[in-house]
């Protein structure tokens, strides 16, 4: 049995060792027939040692499950079929370049038994006895050693991942040797289209041309930009961003290292000399209301924002030297996103981006005139005191109503409807209360709150009379 693997750097022809490793060979052959490896990245390269691939998404993605065996991909397959136990023959060694073997891990049930799924290794050097007993050999590369050399000399990052993507584009089964398909196996009629999760892992596309003479810093910068775009696409897929190309506003400043006593009005007065300010908010703790010592200032014009940035960075305000930078926050867009039903944009042809009038490509913050009346649409870090008191009163009244309401099936104590509406207190209503004893209560309160100095003069008179009595006694 043999299979052809078409990569972005060339083709590899692999002969399978069916007699020595029948189950591992069947797993690899059926995965190739299922097109499971299509668009899989070669995610780890150790020069002159090995390359690793076989995970359709790649281990660096949160959507990756590490790959699965062919028996775990069948309909209604249990999770235990995701891995299988390959043959670990002591006769097969990693002595030649191009040896193909499955990556294995110790079994949870028995550490002495090793399990495999879909990820496999291809050696890039000779006499790699370190892999013996750790990787299950099932084939050898017979054609395509020039492709292995290109992979071996590719530019890598610090984790061993190629800076420019190297991917498996297609797999073809050359000889099946009469091995039947497992029950429930359904061969796709054509190669599947890469999923959004696979596209999100692209750094530098395998068909993108790069300058081979470019230095490592330039390549690293390109890699970081591509990785940032991939992360933004991931956030879009999970619903945290409305679109991956979202850009922070260009008319909002981020001010930090503030003095805790600095108020919104102080910053608005200081920064107001550069132009009209739409909003100025010092972010505060939700519970205590204390300043978190940073703020956002939104200008009406981008030019005013730039002037404030150049003039106010490092300025002393309330004995604190502040730091000013352009805001990278899209929190207000997140508020709009959360208010949309189901986390998806639904506008039915309204203005703006995606049916939301306040959402734009470059400016997400809204002016005061565009905000709904009666509501302060801020950064949502501090509760409004009036609304908080209203909510507390509402909850208190609701709890009291629940306590006073009779339980289901309970009979009222009295048939008199008027007495049923009385409170649970045993005292009569205030309008029928007897006021005849109020005067005694008032006298008691006056005696209770009388000044403690009221006995001082009486004690002085008693002491004087006592001293005079003693003196008269001694004279006698």
Molecular structure report:
The chain has helices at residues 22-33, 145-152, 196-199, 216-238, 264-271, 302-312, 331-339, 385-404, 417-420, 438-448, 456-475; strands spanning 2-7, 10-16, 44-46, 50-53, 99-106, 114-123, 135-143, 168-175, 252-256, 277-284, 291-299, 316-317, 320-321, 323-326. The chain contains eleven helices and 14 strands. The strands form three sheets. Strands 3-4-6-5-7-2-1-8 form an eight-stranded antiparallel beta sheet. A four-stranded antiparallel beta sheet has the order 10-11-9-14, with helices on one face. The longest helix has 23 residues, at 216-238. The model is unreliable at 341-388 and 413-427 (pLDDT under 50). It has 476 residues and is α+β, with helices and mostly antiparallel strands.
Q: Which terms summarize this structure?
A:
14 strands; alpha+beta; 476 residues; four-stranded antiparallel β-sheet; elongated; single chain
Q: Sketch the topology as an H/E string, one letter per element.
A: EEHEEEEEHEHHEHEEHEEEHHHHH
- Give start-end ranges of low-pLDDT stretches: 341-388, 413-427
Please summarize the sheet with the most strands.
8 strands, antiparallel
Give the class from helix and strand content and strand pairing. Answer: alpha+beta
Identify the overall geometry.
Answer: elongated
Instruction: Using the CA coordinates, give the radius of gyration.
Output: 39 Å
Distance between the termini: 140 Å
Average pLDDT metric: 77
Ordered list of secondary-structure elements with their pairings:
Elements: E1 2-7, E2 10-16, H1 22-33, E3 44-46, E4 50-53, E5 99-106, E6 114-123, E7 135-143, H2 145-152, E8 168-175, H3 196-199, H4 216-238, E9 252-256, H5 264-271, E10 277-284, E11 291-299, H6 302-312, E12 316-317, E13 320-321, E14 323-326, H7 331-339, H8 385-404, H9 417-420, H10 438-448, H11 456-475
Antiparallel strand pairs: 1-2, 1-8, 2-7, 3-4, 4-6, 5-6, 5-7, 9-11, 9-14, 10-11, 12-13
